[in-house]
Amino acid sequence: MKKINILALMLVLITVFCSGCILPDGDPLTTESVREMVEKRYGQGKVEVKQLDKKTWRITPKDYPDIKYTIKQKIGHGGVIPVPAYTHTDDRMKQVGRIVVPKFFSAEERKKLCFSGGIIKISFNVKSDDEVAALCTKLEAMCAYMHDNYGAVVKDEYVMTYFQETPLRLKNDRYQKKPVKWDKLSKTKITSYLDTKYGNGTYTFKRADKYSWRSFDDISHEGEVEVYLNDYPDMPFYLSKKINASQSGKLTDTLYNDMVANVAFNFPKEDYEYSSNIKVSAQEKIDGLRYNGVMLDCCFKWGDETGAIENMQVIRKALRNYLNQYPMVNYSDYPKNQHEVEPPICMEISVQF
Q1: Which of 22, 159, 180, 228 is the most buried (most CB within 10 A)?
Q2: In 10 A of CB 153, how many CB atoms?
Q3: Where are the extended beta strands (E) located within 126-277?
Q4: Which one of 62, 89, 116 terminates a domain?
Q5: Contact at 8 Å (CB) between 313 and 136?
Q6: How far is CA 106 from CA 94, 140, 273, in A?
Q7: What pLDDT sits at residue 117?
Q8: Domain assignment of residue 144, given as a range
Q9: pLDDT tens digits along 70-106
C-alpha cells in the first residue's frame, strides 16, 4: 500500500511539473469564436467585435452603444489533477457598474465598491435600521435599472451587497488558543475552572465523542472537553488553552463564539418567505479581520422573488430580536453580565440577473 501511495504521488508531481510543457486543453479564442459566443448573448448581427491584440477583443453591443468591454483569453487549470486549459474573462459588469452605480449611490457610499469577474460588489458600514432601509431602496432601484436598461449585458451575472455593522472586539481576541483534549486535563482542573467561572452545579461536561460534529461549522470536536450550561442544555461549547507566551497553558473556553454559532443555527428562518434561499451563520472573521458576529445572506434571481430585498430587512430585525433573547451573546463576561456587547450582523444580498 505504501508503494502504491508513493507511486500515485510521483504521478501527480510529474503531471504538475510537466503541465507547463504541454499544450493547453481546448482551443484558443479567435475572432470567429468570440463573435459566435457574444452573438448568443446579444443576437446575430447585433454586436461589433474588434481584435485588439493576439489575446484581447473589444465588444460593443449595438443595442447598448455606451457599453464597450473586452474579452481576454487566459490559461487556467481545472480538475483534480491540474491541466492547463484555455479560458477567458471579460469586464462587462465593471463597465456597466461604472455607469450605473453612481446614478444611485454617492461617492461616500461607493468607497467599498469593487468588481470581481462577473460580479459587482458593494459593502456598506451601517449603524441603524433606517440606514439599511435607505440603502436597500437604492439597491432595488439600481437592480431594476440594470435589468431594464442592460438586460442582455448583465444576464446571469451578480450584484452582491453587504450591510455590515461595526465588528465586535472581545478581550479573548488578544490570545491564541487551542482545544483542550480530555485525556490531557484532570477532572479536578476542569471542575475548578468551570466552578470559578460559571458556578457550582450550573453545568455538565463530558468527553466529546465522534458524533460531536456540528453541521454549522463542519468541525469535529472528538476528544475535546464538551460543556453544557444547565440553562442551555442543547448548546455545547468547549474548553481551550491560551498559547501566548505570557498566558501559555491558562484555561479559557469558546463560550461566546460557540453560543453565537448555536443561536444563529437555531434561528427559525423557516418562518419567513424565501427561507430556502436564506442562510444564517456565525462569522468570527470577515475578510481576515475579527468580526465576532452573524452573517445573514440570501441569493435570489431578479424577477423571480418579488419583495425579497424588503423581506431580508424584516428577517434582519427579527434576527436582532432573537439574538437579544440570549444573555450569553449580549455580555462578553457571562454570567457576571457586567460588560454588555451586541453581536454585529452582516447582511449579504446577492442578486442574479
Answers
A1: 159
A2: 21
A3: 158-164, 177-179, 203-207, 213-214, 219-220, 225-229, 232-242, 251-253
A4: 89
A5: yes
A6: 17, 15, 31
A7: 82
A8: 96-169+262-352
A9: 999 877 665 556 677 778 889 999 999 999 999 999 9
